[in-house]
Structures are given as structure tokens and as C-alpha cells.
Amino acid sequence: MSETSGDRRPWLVGVSGASGTPYAASVIRALLHAGEDVDLVVSRASRLTILDETGHPFRDAHADADLRRWLARGADGTPDAFDVDAGTDTSRVRHWTPGDLAAGPSSGSYPVKGMLIVPASTACVAGVALGLSKDLLQRAASVTLKERRPLVVALRETPLTGQTLRHLVALDEAGAVVLPASPAFYAGARHIQDLVDFVAGRALDAAGVPHKLYHRWEGELGQGSGQGNGATGPMP
Ligand SMILES: Cc1cc2nc3c(=O)[nH]c(=O)nc-3n(C[C@H](O)[C@H](O)[C@H](O)COP(=O)(O)O)c2cc1C
């Protein structure tokens, strides 16, 4: 994984312990395809969701190999659905351990473009909303807000308590984009990966990063079924 150089200005990706690790893999792949550098923070709790959802561990001591295996995996469980060597240069990823509060992203003076938390747990949402900074992921998110940089929070939980809703309002008021991990069906999804890529694509839209992860609405009903009928309707 890469070392920080003078002009390196990565996107920070925080992976917290909510279900939805394929969303994180899709976002990281797309950032790398877009030629972006990535700084990655994988929370301690997310090691459980990664293990549960991929069948493999994510270990700090083997972060590069574990990341490559994770990025190669399709959302349907196919181990080599993606060719990690084709446009997904993982040497552009710098991994930081979640307990390292002296890491670069702990400081506003460390150059980053912004941060995406994908997926975001309710615990993470609470921690960032309250400014707890209990680990590097939460600290980096607080730094992103105080520096007025883009912060996208892709919450994955349902249903939501009033407490979480209030935390989400606090994040919105602090300048974050609250982006529920709720796939849409109007883009003509046929496979699990399409639904995952829709959420990842909307997160990248919010960050202003170009991608081709999903088919955009073109103003004609029928895209969702693959049977355009020529009628037009409001954007869903
Ligand atoms: C398999 C598994 C799935 C989980 N899914 C969710 C989820 O979808 N949303 C959520 O808010 N928490 C979920 N949790 C609970 C979080 O992991 C837990 O609240 C943890 O403290 C989050 O810590 P973090 O935000 O530091 O990663 C899940 C836990 C496990 C083990």
C-alpha cells in the first residue's frame, strides 16, 4: 500500500460495523477506477461484519492481501467477480489501523478530499454526531466536519429509533450528506451487485466522484423493468 507523498490527496473511506461490506468494496473499487487515492479505516467492529459477509478476515497485518480478496469478491459471493489488477490499483490505498489516533487523518492538516463512511452503523452515527472520537474512524469524521470537507454517511439500519434520527439531523446540520443505504429499483437492477452498486454510486455522486456504477434516470418510465413504454413521469 502506498506511502503519503507531497501531492497525494486521497478520499478517506471509513468502514464501520454495520451490515453492508459489499457497499464499501464497491466504493473503494470505483474510487480507484476513477484514479483517486484512498485512505482506509476499517473499524474493529467491522472485522466481524467482513468475516460474516465475506467469509474471510480483515487483518491489519495483512491488510493489502485481505483488501484485494475483499475487492475481488462479488456481492453474490463469487470470489473472483472483479479483476483487482484491472484498473483497481490497491497500491493507491493507504490503510490505517482504527486505534491509531496519531494517524494522518486524525489531523485537519492532513490533506484529504473528504470522507465516505460506508456502511455507517448507528453507533458510528451517534459517535460522529456527538463528537466522541472513540476511534480513528470517528475522529477522522469529526475532523472532516470541522474542516468543512465533504462527509457522506451511508447509514445501514432499520428501523430507526428517534435517537438515531436526531443524530442524523445533527449530522445533516453539521454539513454531512446522510445517505441511507437504500437501493432503488428504477435503474433496472438484475443482480445483487446492481443494487449494491446503486448505493455506492449515489454515495460517490454525493462526493462528486465520477463513476459508471448504475444507469441514471433518463426520464422514461420502464427502465426498471427493461421495457420502456415511452411514457414520462416524475423522477422517483
Ligand atoms: C453481523 C453484524 C451485523 C451488524 N449489522 C449492523 C447494522 O446493519 N447496522 C448497525 O447500526 N449496527 C450493526 N451491527 C452492530 C455494530 O457492529 C455495533 O453497533 C458496533 O458497536 C459498531 O461499531 P463501529 O461503529 O465502531 O464500527 C452489526 C453487528 C454484527 C456483528
Automatic annotation (TrEMBL):
It catalyses: dimethylallyl phosphate + FMNH2 = prenylated FMNH2 + phosphate. Pfam families: Flavoprotein. The keyword Flavoprotein applies. FMN binds at residues 17-19, 43, 156. InterPro entries: Flavin_trans-like, Flavoprotein, UbiX-like. Its EC number is 2.5.1.129. Dimethylallyl phosphate binds at residues 186, 202. It comes from the Bacteria. Keywords: Flavoprotein, FMN, Prenyltransferase, Transferase. Residues 11-206 form the Flavoprotein domain. HAMAP family: ubiX_pad. Belongs to the UbiX/PAD1 family. This is Flavin prenyltransferase UbiX. The gene is ubiX.
